[in-house]
Recover the amino acids of this structure.
């Protein structure tokens, strides 16, 4: 009798099933632009190595203090740093923000990234990554959240959940994971996949103590299967030692 094939062995099928199950738990997100591409870029720089609450506060303080991006670029760097101090690493972020604004002004002749709407995804991504200190995650956030492009941002939650599920290997690191997941996730699911994995990483698949007992993905999760076998083996050894 011929063995039946597991319908979830295809990576694309597994990804679709992962998104389906997580959205059954957390809801289906609807994409809406959060802010302009340039605002998104500066907000993303402020969000690095700090909490969302701190970065949102710093961005609000920046917009309240300065009337234009020109005023931000031309301000004394210390004044800008003092304004965004609540976002952490203020001195380095202030210098980077001014360098980015200066580069955009020199290349475009204005403080505006709306021209990216006319570029293909790869070209727009390369353009953003040519800016000072802008890496794949920041570029992807601008393209995905401000422009609705099927470009996947990989933060710590997306990376952790993806390698635990066995979609990528942990050793590749977050930077290379962008290209690997970009190639695996169907374009129409990229935004939903990103949001679902972030939500799951925050609520269930936590870094230190993942809540596997309430996870709807255990049968698809390499991490769970490897660790459940390991825990079972340790339990059997303890039983043998006690007998």
């Amino acid at each position: 009798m011929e063995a039946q094939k597991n319908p979830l062995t295809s990576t694309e099928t597994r990804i679709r099933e992962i998104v389906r199950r997580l959205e059954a738990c957390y809801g289906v997100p609807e994409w809406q632009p959060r802010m302009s591409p340039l605002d998104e870029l500066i907000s993303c720089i402020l969000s690095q190595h700090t909490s969302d609450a701190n970065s949102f506060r710093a961005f609000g303080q920046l917009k309240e203090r300065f009337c234009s991006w020109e005023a931000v670029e031309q301000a004394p760097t210390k004044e800008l740093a003092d304004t965004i101090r609540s976002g952490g690493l203020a001195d380095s972020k202030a210098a980077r923000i001014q360098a980015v604004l200066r580069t955009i002004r020199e290349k475009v002749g204005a403080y505006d990234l709306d021209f990216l709407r006319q570029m293909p995804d790869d070209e727009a991504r390369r353009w953003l990554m040519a800016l000072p200190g802008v890496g794949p995650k920041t570029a992807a956030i601008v393209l995905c959240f401000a422009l609705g492009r099927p470009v996947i941002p990989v933060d710590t939650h997306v990376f952790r959940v993806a390698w635990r599920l066995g979609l990528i290997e942990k050793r590749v690191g977050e930077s290379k994971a962008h290209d690997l997941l970009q190639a695996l996730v169907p374009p129409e699911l990229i935004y939903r996949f990103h949001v679902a994995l972030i939500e799951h990483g925050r609520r269930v698949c936590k870094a230190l103590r993942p809540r596997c007992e309430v996870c709807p993905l255990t049968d698809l999760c390499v991490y769970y299967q490897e660790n459940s076998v390991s825990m079972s083996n340790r339990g059997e050894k303890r039983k043998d030692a006690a007998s």
